[in-house]
Structure prediction request, 219 residues.
Amino acid sequence: MKKNRFIALALLSFLFVISSCTKKVDEYGLTKEINNIIPDEILTSMLDMGMPLNGGNEPPEIIGTYFVSPFILDSSNVPDDVSGKLFADFVVTFYDFNPRKLTVKIDYDNGIETGTGVGSFIVGEGNKFSVFCEIKATQLVLFKAEATMIFTGTLTDNGIEDFWYANFMVDNHGNEQGLWIENGEGRIIYDSDGFSERTDNAKAGVVYDDNYPSALSKK
Prediction:
């Protein structure tokens, strides 16, 4: 009798651990942590503009640095933006992946712009993923901004297939220098050759030419 009771308690403990490690997701496959950092209006705008999402609570282990080029505009609510616009090559690094908490850290370089995630959550199933981030961005070292970003794609051994990216400006700190897009403006950009290579060099191939703006740049 005691043995059966012990087995039953052990089974209940095991089920509790399993359930506590599995995050609940909503109808989009997103966790409550993501919903806390992405306002409904921004999520709706991203979906309306054509941003693909990969929801679910079993994303792949995404770690490493990836080189995104050519980085091409798909859609935007920024005045004077035109689909097909070329942006500076994008290099993003994912690290400290936590499958239990569904978190991952990110840093990126994009022309004269750099950024890091202050809150980054991942969802997905199989090899498909989406990462949602609160970002602190910097241009020319001195000029700061906060934005919301999403990275989505399919992880492979050598890179990411179908890499898509969305950003929306949250706070451009008054934008006195006119470097940033306006608060509430955003863009959907993708790797137009369909494959973003994994690289050991975080600066590999980044375009710094002024003719190629960064993704949060005003021009």
